[in-house]
Structures are given as structure tokens and as C-alpha cells.
Amino acid sequence: MENRIDIQKLEPGAYKAMYALEDFLRNSRLSKTHLELIKIRASQINGCAFCLNMHTSDALKQGETMQRIFLLNAWKETELFTEEEKVILAITEEVTLISQNGLSDKTYREAVKLLDENYIAQAIMAVVTINAWNRMAISTKKPIG
Fold first, then answer.
1. Are 48 and 134 contacting, i.e. CB atoms less than 8 angstroms apart?
2. What CATH number does residue 82 fall under?
3. What is the distance between the alpha carbons of residues 110 and 108, in angstroms, rounded to a whole number?
4. Residue 97: inside a domain, yes or no?
5. Is the pLDDT of residue 1 over 90?
6. Is the residue at 3 inside a domain?
7. In this structure, is residue 89 part of a structural domain?
8. Any residues with CB less than 8 A from the CB of 95 and at least 6 apart, and which?
9. How do residues 2-42 score in pLDDT, each as one tens digit?
10. What is the pTM of this model?
11. Cα Rg, the chain, nearest whole Å
């Protein structure tokens, strides 16, 4: 793979701003499980090998099962995920694929039934943040490891 620019070295202020979002998310009420599911699912959709490697490893360290990670791409067809996790994953997919339809009214209404507005806002910010990381890693061909 060809070497590309290293944004972290060239524009450390940009990375500092991204890490501020990560600090916000780490200190938010989002559960570690929800946060990692968001990061893994968005990274699957975007095809970000760097982020998939990082966040599947992080999830396993936090106690996530391999079975749930393996089946995350097919979460709608399994009973392995809670109703809250399913709405979080729907938000992740719809916000990641924003140009298709955006966050649907159906998903939003379901989220409001299960989660409070602050939690929904934090979930959306988590999706936005991992999508930014995915785009940086893919555009710069950030190597795994």
C-alpha cells in the first residue's frame, strides 16, 4: 500500500479536536457496549479496516462476544441484540448512510420510546464521530497496527 499523508502529524490541531469529541463520548452516558457497537457497525458500512481492527479488539477486551461481533452485520436477523441495541444500530446505519434517507421517522420514534433525548443525541454524536474517523483513515490509507 502506498504511503499517504499523516494528518495527525501534519495537522495536530485537527486530531486534538477529534480527541475532544472522543473525550465527550467517553464521559457521556453511552454504555461502552453501545459505543463499540456504533463504532464497529459504522466501520463495517464504510469499509474501514483500521477502525474495524481497533474497535473489535476494544469490544472483545470489554467483554463483547465474538458471536455478536460476527453477526453484527446481520443484527436485524438475530435475537442476540436487545431492543435498545437494535435502535442504536438502526440510528448508526441511517446516519452513516445519510444520503439514502437520513434518520427515519420510524427509527426516531422507536428511539424516543426506548431512550431519552440526551442519550439519542449522544448516540448521534458517536455515529458522526466514528464516520469522521473512518473517512480520515480510509482517505489516508492508515495502516492497521
1. yes
2. 1.20.1290.10
3. 5
4. yes
5. no
6. no
7. yes
8. 102, 103, 124, 127, 128, 131
9. 778 989 999 999 999 999 999 999 999 999 999 999 999 99
10. 0.94
11. 15
Is residue 101 within 8 A of residue 91, CB to CB? The reply is no
Q: Report the distance separating Cα 83 and Cα 90, nearest Å.
A: 11
121-142 exposure pattern, b = at least 16 Cβ within 10 A, e = fewer: ebbbbbbebbbebbebbbebeb
Print the domain residue range for 128. 12-140
Any alpha helices (H) in the chain, and if so which ranges?
A: 7-10, 12-26, 32-46, 49-61, 66-70, 83-96, 105-114, 117-140
Q: CA 111, CA 130: separation in Å to the nearest integer? A: 20
- Structural domains in the chain (count): 1
CA dist., res. 41 & res. 47, Å (int)? 10
Evaluate whether 83 touches 114 at the Cβ level (below 8 Å). yes
Q: Which of 113, 60, 61, 66 is CA-nearest to residue 86? A: 113
7 found inside a domain: no
136 pLDDT tier (thresholds 50, 70, 90): very high
